[in-house]
């Protein structure tokens, strides 16, 4: 993987992967230096074969039974081809997920330890077959709409477990350091004195500290109970400004909500440690916090 600042040149492999894009007489001498992350997922049943996809949404092939439905997601990064605008051909990511990762999970017991070991075992072959110049960074297995396992490259194979939750709450965006006019200008109708509400979605990610190389988080119920007690029950159907002490003086922006939730959860788990807190305020806006005194790990994103 080239350093992002190091210009690289196309090789023959790029030509072969995108033959329809390049005329043979064109000089394949393009310089690119961008670094990008691309996320691609497939949906499959354990009994699906790698070939014969007949449903573009679900990818169902020659399904033998209904069984458990799963989502496999790959996160790859690398430079963007300036001529195609592609980081890589996503069909090749699909092929790796269907031909390498999905078979490795077939027949594996539905417990976190077994699935984690299978993902860890499949990672090297998936990374090896990842279409260059893209590099496989993360493999995710979504076992339900609210539970996913992830393995990161360079993360010692340690598993991250992510659980999703929801709560509804009211807030008013307001800074006592600003004038009424400045509050209105900055926060608009979000500074309505009587507040307004959101249906928040909270994603909590933890890593295991059980001493195994996979760091498997086996007690998912424990994670749920801690989040329920420390965040959901205190926040759900509450006015955050008035009923949550952290926001008595602190503006309950989605960034600050993520940080407050981090502080409520950090150190509260047994057998695992908090890795990240992501709060979706709307389907288009979320904040993620991964700790750090300077807040450098806090980021906003739109989706
Ligand atoms: Ni709001």
Summarize the structure in words:
The structure is a single chain. The protein is of the alpha+beta class. Helix 2 packs antiparallel against helix 3. The longest helix has 18 residues, at 112-129. The chain has helices spanning 12-17, 90-105, 112-129, 180-187, 220-235, 240-243, 254-265, and strands at residues 8-9, 31-32, 36-44, 70-78, 135-144, 147-152, 159-171, 196-208, 238-239, 272-282, 285-289, 299-301. It folds into 2 domains: 34-155, Tetrahydropterin Synthase, Chain A (2-Layer Sandwich); 158-303, Tetrahydropterin Synthase, Chain A (2-Layer Sandwich). It is globular and about 60 Å long. The two termini are 27 Å apart. The chain contains 7 helices and 12 strands. Strands 3, 4, 5, 6, 7, 8, 9, 10, 11 and 12 form a 10-stranded mixed beta sheet that branches. The protein has a two-stranded antiparallel sheet with strand order 1-2. Nickel (II) ion is lined by residues 171, 190, 196, 198.
As for the CATH topology of the largest domain, it is Tetrahydropterin Synthase, Chain A
| Shape by Cα distribution | globular
**Count of folded domains:** 2
- C-alpha-based Rg, rounded: 23 Å
Tell me the name of the CATH homologous superfamily of the largest domain.
6-pyruvoyl tetrahydropterin synthase/QueD
CATH architectural arrangement of the largest domain: 2-Layer Sandwich
Q: DSSP helix count?
A: 7
Helix and strand string, N-terminal first? EHEEEHHEEEHEHEHHEEE
């Amino acid at each position: 993987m080239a350093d992002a600042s190091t210009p690289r040149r196309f090789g023959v492999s790029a030509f072969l992967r995108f033959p329809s894009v390049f005329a043979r007489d064109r000089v394949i001498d393009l310089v690119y230096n961008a670094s990008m992350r691309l996320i691609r997922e497939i949906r499959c049943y354990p009994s699906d074969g790698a070939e014969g996809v007949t449903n573009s949404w679900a990818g169902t092939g020659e399904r033998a039974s209904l069984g458990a439905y799963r989502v496999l997601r790959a996160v790859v990064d690398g430079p963007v081809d300036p001529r195609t605008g592609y980081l890589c051909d996503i069909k090749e990511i699909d092929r790796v997920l269907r031909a390498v990762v999905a078979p490795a999970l077939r027949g594996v017991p539905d417990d976190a330890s077994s699935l984690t070991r299978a993902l860890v075992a499949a990672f090297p072959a998936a990374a090896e077959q990842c279409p260059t110049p893209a590099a496989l960074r993360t493999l995710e297995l979504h076992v339900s709409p609210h539970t996913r396992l992830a393995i990161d490259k360079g993360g010692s194979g340690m598993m991250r477990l992510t659980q999703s939750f929801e709560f509804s709450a009211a807030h008013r965006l307001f800074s006592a350091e600003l004038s009424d006019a400045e509050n209105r200008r900055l926060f608009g109708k979000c500074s309505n004195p009587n507040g307004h509400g959101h249906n928040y979605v909270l994603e909590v990610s933890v890593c295991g500290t059980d001493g195994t190389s996979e760091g498997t988080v086996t007690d998912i119920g424990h994670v749920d109970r801690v989040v329920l007690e420390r965040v959901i029950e205190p926040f759900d159907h509450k006015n955050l400004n008035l009923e949550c002490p952290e926001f008595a003086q602190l503006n309950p922006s989605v960034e600050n909500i993520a940080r407050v939730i981090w502080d409520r959860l950090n150190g509260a788990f047994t057998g695992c440690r908090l890795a990240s807190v992501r709060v979706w305020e709307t389907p288009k806006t979320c904040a993620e916090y991964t700790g750090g005194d300077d807040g450098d790990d806090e980021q906003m994103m739109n989706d």
